[in-house]
Amino acid sequence: MRIILSIRNFLFAVVVVVASATSFAQIGISVSFGPPALPVYEQPLCPGEGYMWTPGYWAYDYDEGDYYWVPGTWVEAPEVGVLWTPGYWAWRGDGFFFSEGYWGPHVGFYGGISYGYGYFGEGYEGGRWDHDRFFYNRSVNNVNITNIHNVYNTTVINNTTTLNRVSYNGGNGGINARPRQEDEMAARDRHIPPVSVQAQHVQAARTNPQLRASVNRGRPPVAATPRPGAFNDRAVSPAREAGAPYNPPVSRGASQPRANTPPRPENNVPPPNAVHAKDIQPHARPAPPNTGNPKLDQRYQQQQQKLYAQQEQEHQRLQQKQEQDHQRLTQQKANEVRTQQIEQKHQQQTQQLEQKHTQKQQQLQNKQQPASRNQPRPPK
Length: 380
Description:
Layout (H helix, E strand, L loop, with lengths): L6 H11 L12 E2 L19 E4 L2 E5 L4 E5 L1 E5 L6 E3 L2 E4 L4 E4 L2 E3 L9 E3 L2 E2 L6 E4 L2 E5 L13 E2 L15 E2 L11 H7 L8 H11 L6 H4 L7 E2 L68 H39 L3 H38 L7
Parallel strand pairs: 5-16, 7-15, 13-14
Antiparallel strand pairs: 1-8, 2-5, 3-4, 6-9, 7-8, 10-11, 12-13
Helix pairs in contact: 5-6
């Protein structure tokens, strides 16, 4: 089967690559199981004027096959007048996809997830811009009024202690929320991708074993920081408790192959994060069979070559179709929402094709092996 060429690193580094762009396309990545619940934690004290709260969330590391916690943190707004729209996980029919957060003049759709501290599922209640100054709502933010005077008080329902701490949209047990009209309008705004300190913050979390869900069981020791990357600061906030009992996914290694069934080669498993047909290498040509029966071997080899040629044609057709979609998006100057929809569609197409090819090859292999075993042994 085809093998991913550093697609994992591309998906993680996309934030850094487009850091100077004024708009960007969100690229979905797929995981077969949902993230843990959001942990319960306290917001650190705001370090100064101009800092905006970006809530913590679960990210996914394909190299480890595990979710890891990206602590909530205060980040300086990249420019006057912009607000932070958090990223979120959502079920898209055959997996969980993550939509990256962004800066913009309005807060858009973030899956209906109640991240707390102003992000209660819709919009933002934590503060507002007044000309060139940001005013903080003290009812939901931890602000020292001795140092920060631009504050106000508006009581809102603070969901940081709610029993519903689900961290994903849709699917089994997920948040049932859809974009509102104002969310659709916000999606058409000019967007700024996460700034460099946010990308560094994510990288620091990714390399910290204690932040992996399998280690902290949904209760990370560093749940929030006063500034990006300040994991060793005395002001960090550990999680008071997990948002829900942690249920790890069933280990792939727990299932054993049946008797007389050879294990499937690792490169025959379709990678879960393939985005486009062009991102994967051509199929490896099948090795000539060797059953000891020349006529049977010739027939098997013909079947293998026929399947190989058919799969290559299907791959090329899909690649051409996806490239045509990209050309149309460019010609139509499609907005971010439409671009994201096409990217997710492409990922689903690619994964479905790979799964189909894997099944066909496995079926052919299973068909050949019993016939090989049933061949009469040569006389002694």
